[in-house]
Amino acid sequence: MFNTKLPTQSELPTSGQLLRSTVIAVCVAAALLVTVVMPSEYAIDPTGVGRVLGLTQMGEMKKTLAEEAAADAAVQPAEAPVAQAPVPVQPVVKEPVVAAPVAALVAEPEPALKSDEVTVTLKPGEASEIKLEMLDKATVSYEWTTNGVPVNHDTHGEPYNGPKGYYHSYSKAKQITGDKGEFTAIFDGTHGWFWRNRSNSDVTITLKTKGEYLSVKRVI
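User: That's the sequence. What structure does it adopt?
Assistant: Structure tokens below.
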């Protein structure tokens, strides 16, 4: 049995009170939608409050990154696996056994350092990609600059025989005129830079590289 006393008719909210509470809740939800959700998620700010709070900028960044990701995926070529050449079988010739130090048998030569300078010119809306062939744990230092026109870029790598569409991003940015640094390959594959010219002017990009890589090539 319940000992709770049932509320009287006077203690229950009236229809007017319920209606007023519903209207207030709807107004608050609409205000949050217009001033918070729409600016931060869709960069739509009809009241201007979202820009004051910094939410519209957040929405614009999300929208731009989504567009860049879609554009990059559309032009990013799939890296074809590099076929390994078959090793010719040599006839075994018995030679006199010569004693040699153990260290000389297991020592591996240090990879030679390479350095290159590549220049590309992009018209408005064009994109380009330069890749280095690198082995796992190889390191390269780089520096690229434009002629003053800003570009969007993505520094990334793709493994040999990796899943279609998979890549690892080392860094990315938009509307910059240069970048420099160093990265270490996390797998055998191609590693490099993708640029897109979103300006209304031609842009010239000069890339300098130095490190433990096998070759450099322009993919796009």
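The first strand starts at residue 114 and ends at 122.
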